[in-house]
């Protein structure tokens, strides 16, 4: 993975983390926490969704990456929220 690709994934993850925080109210971790979860969710979704056979394309590849990453971040925020509420 080149440095450029890594920077793009980080930016996509930050956008996805922000969107996930807006979508999943009440389960968020604050702005910085959501952005970190977005980056992790972007990496998770970028690996997991194609592995599961889920593939789709939106307007262009960047928007598609943001949608994938947002799905990953929302799922991750929900899981973290469930574990935090269970305590």
**How many strands, which pairing sense, and closed or not: the largest β-sheet?**
none
Category by helix and strand content: mainly alpha
User: What fraction of residues sit in β-strands?
Assistant: under 5%
Q: Tell me the overall shape.
A: globular
Number of domains: 1
End-to-end C-alpha gap: 38 Å
Spatial extent as radius of gyration: 13 Å
User: How much helix, percentage-wise, in residues?
Assistant: over 70%
Summarize the structure in words.
The protein is mainly alpha-helical and 87 residues long. The protein has one domain. It is 79% helix and 0% strand. It contains 3 helices and no strands. The mean pLDDT is 83.
Any chance you could write out the topology, listing elements then pairs?
Blueprint: H1 3-23, H2 30-51, H3 61-86
Quick description:
By secondary structure, the chain is mainly α. Helices cover 79% and strands 0% of the residues.
What descriptive keywords fit this protein?
87 residues, mainly alpha, 3 helices, 0% strand
